Amino acid sequence: MLTSDDVEYLLSKPVLTDGAALHNLIQMGYGDCFGADAVPINTTRLSEKFIPHSVNEGIESKTWSQSFFYTSGHAVKDLDGTSEAFGVYYTDSLNVPKLDMDSQYPYGVANAIVRTGKKAKWAVFGHNPWVTVISYDKRRQLLRAMDYIAGKKRLPAILDSYQQAVLLPRENGAHQTTSVSVLNCTIGKTEELTLRLRNPLGTDFSFMSAATASVKLPFSKDGEDFLVKLPPLEPWTVGTVFCE
What we know:
There is one protein chain. The chain is mainly beta. It folds into two domains: 4-150, no CATH class; 157-243, Golgi alpha-mannosidase II (Immunoglobulin-like, Sandwich). It has helices at 4-10, 19-30, 136-150; strands at 15-18, 36-42, 47-50, 63-64, 72-78, 84-90, 109-115, 121-125, 157-159, 165-171, 177-184, 193-197, 205-209, 215-216, 219-222, 225-230, 238-243. The relative contact order is 0.13.
């Protein structure tokens, strides 16, 4: 159970959460601390569409649906003009009631960046983000939302490739990325992978795994990010990129 001190602390920090958490906090009396509300809705016949926003760059108009086991969610309702919608509910069914006939998004906003009274940004996902099976585009949206609300304290590494994997980045005391381990958690060999690195200790990138001796890695730049090419990984093996 969150204490009042816990809530006050979180109101000043970037937070990725769901609509239920925002709704519960408002019910606890923290409504004046947010620029948006979260309205419980039935999502049985609703899907999510990604709309233009920097969080969705390259994946605009993509859609995401969940199974019929998930029948409830929340619509994020802007209250002060500061919220930034990046996902909306839609349906092809003709008999699903609309939340607001006159709204640009009549079935409601599924995901939005919400401002707190302490000027922090929260990424609020109303369409039940805590599921074990998601699309690669949805994964990209979640990661980019984390990046967006974090500001300068961005994630140290992101796997750009469409591959099921686990990343274990390491930083030194100066918040420089010193290495990133990549676990291929599938039963198949990967293709060449692209790893997006931020603030590396150095730009001499090398790679090593149980099946690969140390090799130098090619890279390119994307703004301040480094796009490093990794060799294929065998099933259920770990490879590590070193930044020197």
